[in-house]
Amino acid sequence: MSLSFKFIFSKEIPAMPVEHVIENFRKGFKLTYCEEIKQVESNKIHVMNGFFHNFNSHWNMWTGVGDAWLTVTEKKENRILVEYEINYSYFVIMWSVVFSFTIFSSIVQFTHYGQSSDDMILSGIIILSFLFSFEVLYWRHWSFFRRALSGKYISAGNYNWPQILSDKTDEELRYIASGKSMLNSDVAALAKKELEKRKQH
Questions:
Q1: In this predicted structure, what is the pLDDT of residue 104?
Q2: CB 123 within 8 Å of CB 104
Q3: Where is the chain membrane-spanning (predicted)?
């Protein structure tokens, strides 16, 4: 059984067309220099990158990440669950090689010349670099997840929003109208109109 290192971001949001969420994330992924995007199921996207990723930007969010999955699951009570899973095993492998080389060099140094303060300084720098790089990796994907959920990458789409919104509860409509959902301002305006229409009846 292969060992893998992953972190997962997830959030439940008011129900909306699953394909709308999938398309939003797909457009976001295309802007991040990933190597391949594949829709494996109607509610799931798989992002794939090779070990020697094409480094075409500083602090590329896919450096050290082989795979990522975006899954949208319909829940009860008009809710959907959005899960974003990132496999950063390549990142761990790369840094393990760096650590191993550093330890080997330190042993050779100690064997021939005795312990040196330079070795301790170098080890400290490498550990700090590892921690900093991991924080950047984690933050980049967390930030992407939040931006995608906010609806940054997509328009209203070709959906019958008046009909969709008419099936929502008042609470869901207020949430959409507030602009806090991943739907854009056009849909938020339609939600406000639906609320106003209900008040008149």
A1: 77
A2: no
A3: 88-108, 120-139
